Amino acid sequence: MVHLAVHTTRSVSEAESLDYWRHVISEAFVPLDATAERDRFQGQVCIDQLGAMVVSRVDAQPHRVRRTKAMIARRERGYYKLGLQLRGGCLLVQDGREAILRPGDFALYDTDRPYTLAFEDTTSMAVFMFPRERLRLGATSAQHVLGRRIEAEDETGSLLSPLFRRLARRLEGGNPASTMPLADAVLDLLSALLTEQVTDAAPADQSHAALVLRAKAFVDENLADPGLCPDVVAAALHISTRYLQKLFAGEGTGVAGWIRARRLEQCRRDLARPGRTVSAVGAAWGLPDAAHFSRTFKAAYGMSPREYANRQQGFA
């Protein structure tokens, strides 16, 4: 378990503050450049980790942050970031879209596409970074929601903004293990609401997108079945397996890969909770072969299921 870390420019001289800030935010998130008009820049970032999610709060004087193509080319990370404005304002620019965030507003953006964050006033922002696949948004669906402001007062914002605020407050104290279920639940709700937005906004003739959503829903409902495979999904939707594979190719993944990723994500959640054996967790989500489960989990998360469970439950 990664413990709470606090980094502040007060720990270095004024001349070193901006260079130090670039280093801190690049280590906390992804490689970033930062510029500020004033020489005496001050900022602080508090960072914690909840499973696969990095939770942080950034308090800083006016500055700009950029993620460039060159930085992305050196190392892609496969993460989304969600910025929730707590105080002051922010301008997010990605893919030609501009989102002006006020307190309570938030926006989702992709760390593997160039973006800029401009803070013209002293600001506070809660930032949540997590793997892209966690939201179950395909490439087409993501284009509808990335870089767009979600206002605190609209339906999605009024539901999610208080929950993300609650997660951010855990940086001020609390038991990270007890927050894990909330973090997972918030991301599930975010995924569902964003998918609903895309579906509502899509023209009626976009049958391809509708089929993909139905396929993903069927997968999630049947993950516990060891026999779940592309053929079974295709049969449930009354389409050919070849056509189903073609639909998922547009999403940037194969059907089998999607099933595997969803199973592993559910296993990851259960392993973070005490009282479940590794073999029982794997079997509960359609992976009854313990050796295969261990190999697949390690390939995805860089450690065995047992190592992950021990770390999350504080037995490292």
From TrEMBL:
Signal peptide: none annotated. SUPFAM superfamilies: Homeodomain-like, Regulatory protein AraC. PROSITE patterns: HTH_ARAC_FAMILY_2 (PS01124). Keywords: DNA-binding, Transcription, Transcription regulation. InterPro entries: AraC-bd_2, AraC_XylS_family_regulators, Homeodomain-like_sf, HTH-like, HTH_AraC. The keyword Transcription applies. Pfam families: AraC_binding_2, HTH_18. It comes from the Bacteria. Residues 213-311 form the HTH araC/xylS-type domain. This is Helix-turn-helix domain-containing protein. It comes from Amycolatopsis acididurans.
